[in-house]
Design a protein that fits this description.
mainly beta; seven-stranded mixed sheet; four-stranded antiparallel sheet; 51% strand; globular
């Protein structure tokens, strides 16, 4: 079983940047697709970005394209989400997950989830 722990969240002004990290333990993530999801208060959890097992392919929801970058370092068993040009509507709890599908996934494509990290963007 994979354990995932997110870090790097916080409070930032609009236009600022944050880098989220997701450290895996107990098992290697090198054979998993990895994804970042987010859940704003009162809303459903939604997909943000996904990356293939070897990092060669990525996929983003339209609202973050050009601003967010997902990457991974399998040697460090870690996945990252670089978030630039942040907007107040990016405010949410961000979750990383390990699963089977990085392109247009659903929540059900991911078996393992972290506890989440809060990102708050002030206007």
């Amino acid at each position: 079983q994979v354990q995932l722990a997110e870090s790097g969240g916080g409070l930032v002004q609009a236009g600022g940047s944050l880098r989220l990290s997701c450290a895996a333990s107990r098992r290697s993530i090198s054979s998993y697709a990895m994804g970042w999801f987010r859940q704003a208060a009162g809303k459903e959890r939604g997909f943000v970005a996904g990356i293939s097992w070897n990092g060669d392919s990525t996929y983003y929801v339209d609202s973050v394209k050009g601003r967010f970058t997902i990457s991974r370092d399998n040697a460090k068993n870690t996945v990252y989400l670089q978030m630039n040009s942040l907007k107040p509507e990016d405010t949410a709890v961000y979750y990383c997950a390990a699963g089977s599908k990085w392109y247009q996934p659903t929540l059900h494509d991911y078996a393992y989830w972290g506890q989440g990290t809060q990102v708050t963007v002030s206007s």
